[in-house]
Design a protein that fits this description.
Elements (H helix, E strand, L loop, with lengths): L4 H30 L7 H5 L5 H10 L5 E5 L3 E2 L6 E2 L4 H13 L3 E7 L3 H8 L8 E4 L5 H15 L3 E5 L34 E6 L12 H7 L3 H4 L7 E4 L3 H14 L11 H13 L19 H15 L1
Parallel strand pairs: 1-4, 1-6, 4-5, 6-7, 7-8
Antiparallel strand pairs: 2-3
Helix pairs in contact: 1-9, 1-11, 3-9, 4-9, 5-10, 9-11
Protein name: D-glutamate cyclase-like C-terminal domain-containing protein
InterPro entries: GLUCM_C (IPR025504)
Length: 315
């Protein structure tokens, strides 16, 4: 007897649920690997968002093609040559490329202070019209209004924040040293109020999305936590040792869920190419404050060993 449409749908849903639970342990392993601590308490903070990587990736890997704004850019004004750091843009452009590869669409979003580095990251990966740059000063409100129209016109349904500083308890965005950097930071946290599904990725407590975690945890674990903890939550939060690893974990989770179109991004040469372009555009190692092709003070060996380990777990 031929199954009815209802029976077929029920069978498909049951199969999907079963396959999801079969892949969950693999994604949980990816989540743990990405969250390995480099000195900021990420392994502990990750426990407050356990399972969120799986839920965030599953939303893109199953069902309809998604469209997302991927927001990043952390400007470092006190460096000898001020610029955005390399942590964040790599993961952001990787996620944009992955979402587009599986049939969706994505826009990389930042602000005018970070623009050179953001465009460097997007070079040879995203078309120019898929990079959105918020202006400085009073023009931001008009830009936000136009972005809202874009969201409606393109049916964008998700906003992902990766290594994007957000307001702390006193309303000011602060870096890991507790310094107020509002003067060099557009209020892109306002994109969280567009009514879209929200995902946050961070590594230090001051990024948009960390409001998902109880304040006492960040205060107790992170240096200056009581001052820097971002109060803006997201529906899912991915905590990583460095935020680029969190973006890579998202893409590797898509691969583990059957989205083999993202396979190019599992190769560390893909990441090396993006970081080379970021460095050429003036991007900084956010810990060393130098224009060198490293991330968060990590050695190249340590950084890429983790990229490769996360990829291997996905495979």
């Amino acid at each position: 007897m031929t199954a009815t449409k209802t029976e077929a749908n029920a069978t498909s849903q049951q199969s999907g649920a079963l396959s999801s639970w079969l892949v969950y342990p693999k994604v949980a392993g990816i989540q743990r690997k990405a969250a390995e601590d480099v000195g900021r308490g990420s392994e502990t903070l990750m426990t407050f968002a356990r399972g969120d990587l799986f839920r965030a990736a599953r939303r893109f890997a199953t069902g309809k093609a998604r469209k997302a704004l991927v927001v990043t850019g952390f400007f470092i004004p006190k460096a000898e040559h001020p610029a955005a750091e390399s942590d964040g843009p790599v993961g952001a452009v990787e996620m944009c490329a992955a979402i587009r590869a599986i049939g969706g669409d994505a826009w990389m979003v930042s602000d005018a202070w970070c623009e050179p580095v953001i465009r460097g990251a997007a070079k040879n990966v995203l078309p120019d019209d898929r990079v959105l740059i918020a202006p400085k000063g009073d023009a931001f409100d008009d830009w936000l209004s136009e972005t809202r129209k874009l969201v409606e016109r393109e049916h964008i349904d998700t906003v992902i924040f990766i290594e994007r500083v957000g307001p702390s308890r006193d309303g000011y965005p602060r870096n890991m040293r507790g310094i107020n950097i509002q003067e060099w930071t557009a209020p892109l946290s306002r994109l969280a109020s567009l009514g879209l599904h929200t995902v946050g990725i961070g590594d230090g407590g001051n990024e948009i999305g960390m409001g998902h975690i109880q304040e006492y945890a960040i205060e107790d674990i992170v240096d200056h936590g009581e001052d820097i903890a971002c109060t803006v939550p997201t529906e899912e939060l991915i905590v990583a040792g460095c935020s680029n690893w969190g973006g890579h974990a998202f893409v590797c989770s898509l691969y583990a869920m059957g989205c083999k179109q993202v396979s190019a991004m599992l190769d560390d040469q893909w990441h090396r190419s993006v970081i080379a372009n970021i460095t050429a555009a003036g991007g900084l190692d956010g810990v060393k404050l130098l224009n060198i092709p490293t991330v968060d003070g990590l050695s190249e060996r340590q950084y890429y060993a983790q990229i490769n380990a996360i990829s291997q777990l996905a495979r």
